[in-house]
Amino acid sequence: MINTRLAGRSGETDTLPDKIANVTSILRNRLDKVMTRFKKSDPEFYAAYQSARVIVDRGGSSSAAKPAPAPAALASK
Predict the structure, then answer these.
(1) Distance CA 60, CA 65 (A)
(2) How far is the C-alpha of 42 from the C-alpha of 47, rounded, in Å?
(3) Residues 29-39: what's their mean pLDDT?
């Protein structure tokens, strides 16, 4: 029973690279192209989108990531 679960999980894990590539393709080839419409009409929104698209950690780092500091409004509650 445990071997069946592990095999199933392993099979799902093996499909991750293809799924990640598919999602990345959609993001770059569809969403990013749609967002260029806002470059002139709403530059602040476009800049915020571009900032949000920055990937800080591309994965694979073995060191523990430092948690982001809590916003001041939440820290006082």
Answers:
(1) 11
(2) 9
(3) 92
Cα 17 from Cα 25, distance rounded (Å): 12
Give me the number of domains the chain comprises.
1
Structure token digits, residue 43: 């530059």
Q: How far apart, in whole angstroms, are the C-alpha atoms of residue 52 and residue 50?
A: 5
* φ/ψ bin of 54: left (φ > 0), alpha (ψ from -120 to 50), beta (otherwise): beta
Note down the domain range covering 30: 17-55
74, part of any domain: no
Question: Is the pTM value of this prediction over 0.70?
Answer: no
* DSSP string of 2-26, one letter each residue: HHHHHHHHHHHHHTHHHHHHHHHHH
CA distance 15 to 36: 31
Residue 51 lies in a domain: yes
